Amino acid sequence: MTAVLRQLVREHPWLLPVADMARLAVFVGFVTLVLLVGWRARAGWSSPRTRGAVNTLIVYVLAASCATGFFQQEAWPFTHWALVRNVAAKRSASWELQGLDGSGRSWVIDPAVLQPLSPDELGVWMSKSLSALDPASRAAIGRFVLERAEHARQRLVTGRRFAANEWLLGPLAAPYHGHARGAWRTAADVPPTAFVAVRVWALEWNVEERFQDEQRVTRTLRLEYRDRDAG
Q: Which of 80, 85, 186, 215 is 20 to 30 A from 193 in CA distance terms?
């Protein structure tokens, strides 16, 4: 339906102001009915006239919401909330932080160590900009991740909360949008000794193939940083 409407607007530009007038009419109608309900409510909510006004408002809201969703056009305060409006892609991508201890064993780093920086924001930035950085800048990014991971590891092994945004409410704190359950929950999830290096991996997979086999993921090393003082 959205594609059809776009084609009509391209062919008939005069439809744009008409659509704006229609949105205005929807808004005015909504406000009018709300005021009518308030006016009728003076006689009591059990009054037949009040109930009739409320029922009219409910029907109006349902009709406007359905029309907004069907035509995929915003008409404030009604919205289609099209967070996902296209066919899902066959391939998907993400990233992963990995830490290495002194013995060379690798550990998944919980993205919550980056708080209050959102892992989603860092991931988007890295996917677009990491490859264009010079060696010194890449080292700075690696050092930042290593320091945050090590600081969080030390807090976790001593029984303290490591995520900056959870210092007060703990698990009741609001999570970041789309952030899965953390990889670090107990001291057993981190090494007993310090991290000496970090890696940033780019992950890519075919959605259907990974649904059948969780291990079918292509991993590409995007950045590796080792603490020189660690040897």
A: 215
